[in-house]
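Hey,
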Amino acid sequence: MNARFLSLRRAFAAALVLAAAASAQRGGPQPEYARQAQQSIRQGKLDEALDIYRKELATNPNSQDANRGAGLVLDLMGKGAEARPYYQKAIDAAPDAARKAAAERDMAMSYAFSGDCRNTVKFEQMVFDYWVTVPDFYQQGEMANEAARVCIDAGDLDTAEKYYKIGHDAGLKEPDIAPGRKDLWAFRWEHAAARLAARRGQKAEAQKHVDAAKAALDDMATKDEGLATQQRGFFPYLTGYVAYYAGDYPKALAELQKANQSDPFFQCLIGMTYEKLGDKDKAMEAYKKASVTTAHNPPAAFARPFARKKLGL
């Protein structure tokens, strides 16, 4: 997946904007302890990273960055209950609204790692409210969709549907919205509606929304080919997802193998599909890939705990 594709990913976009806003207001280079901790995280040395953050907190207990870092590591370790007091300290210590919102999003993702839709929504709503004050309708849509994504993965389909609709409607309120951006929100809504219908066992309804998503993507291409190119990678994810929940596992596998193979959520879907096809070895191979993600976003929040449980870790 290229950088341009990543930049518009629903899972990352709002977090990146929040981080940039917070960084700009903070100023100065990243402290050495943070660089060391992040390197340890990338290497999978989570105990080492946690020790680095805790050492910093021993001398600087109100460090927002160290509290957020410690919370993230604990989430990756599957210790969400231990992570959340760190995030609360980061929220309480935030010097400005942008950094408070960034810490609130961290808290939302911590609950996402525990499959807790209700509390994820609670904190995502706080971040949504921050973007209302900016105001930034696109980021409001991003946050609502992010909450919805956690809820659909947690199995709370009604709440997911509610927040996907909120996200769609907020995004369309962007002043002087570009025609391609309108199609983007249409594509996202139909994509979500198809997945929701598939999860509810509504095969015909799911296919109707798949067709509508394809039409929105085609319309987008006539107005903003670059944007459409960025979004096309999400279409085989949709068709594979719908096929999986319809019980058509050969089609699901074929479609999912066209999607981004480095996404941990897709890796889990591929593993789940291989399990249905009776190929346990390939399923475990896919789960191993998903289990080592160190991202802190909705795909990772589902994939890392799920895959590690499948592997008995």
